[in-house]
Structure formats: structure tokens, C-alpha cells
Amino acid sequence: MSSYRFVILNQKDNVATALDDIPAGSIVKVTRQDREYDMTIKQNIEFGHKFAIVSIKKGEDILKYGEVIGVASSDIAEGEHVHVHNVEGKRGRGDKEHGDRSILGV
Q1: pTM as predicted
Q2: What string of DSSP letters covers 35-85?
Q3: Total structural domains within the chain
Q4: CATH number of 39's domain
Q5: How do residues 47-91 score in pLDDT, each as one tens digit?
């Protein structure tokens, strides 16, 4: 068992934030909603980056701080890196809704 540090900011969260660089293959102990379990980190997780602490299906909300911070753009396995490659923001992207030209007023 490794002693890499990470934080789960709210018990509703489905991601944790690394407080150390965590190498792929490391086993970490996760405590969430009165459940404790060992989990294998699937990819290298850099300090400050997020990883899934449960499996997240495509289209499901990503929760951090107990709040929705995005939606999974693909299935994310427990222990996988959660970042721009598999998360889409939900807070409005005018460039996607109206095309890049609309944000320029043309």
C-alpha cells in the first residue's frame, strides 16, 4: 500500500485531487461515504489533478466540492485520470452552441 496523499473534498464527490504525484499502478486507500477500499491508480496522476474514485459512465456528472464541475465525455474507470480529455464543461460554451463566430459578434 502506498502513502500518496490525495483529498476528497466532499463525500458526494466521485473524484479525488492528488496532493502528490501518484504513479500508475499505485494502490491507494479510499474512504468515501463510510466505505473504505483499496484502489489501483490506472495512469500517472500529477499533483493537483483529479482521478475517479468510482467508475463514471459517459454522460454522468463529475462531482467535486459536492458540486457538478462537468460531465464525463467518455466512460471513466475507477483510478483513471479525470481531465480535459474525458470531461466536458456544463457551464455554457457559446462557441459550441453558435459556432466560433458568434463570440466575435460576427
Answers
A1: 0.83
A2: EEEEEE--S-B-TT-EEESS-B-TTPEEEETTEEEEEESS-B-TT-EESTT
A3: 1
A4: 2.30.130.110
A5: 999 999 999 999 999 999 999 999 999 999 999 999 999 999 987
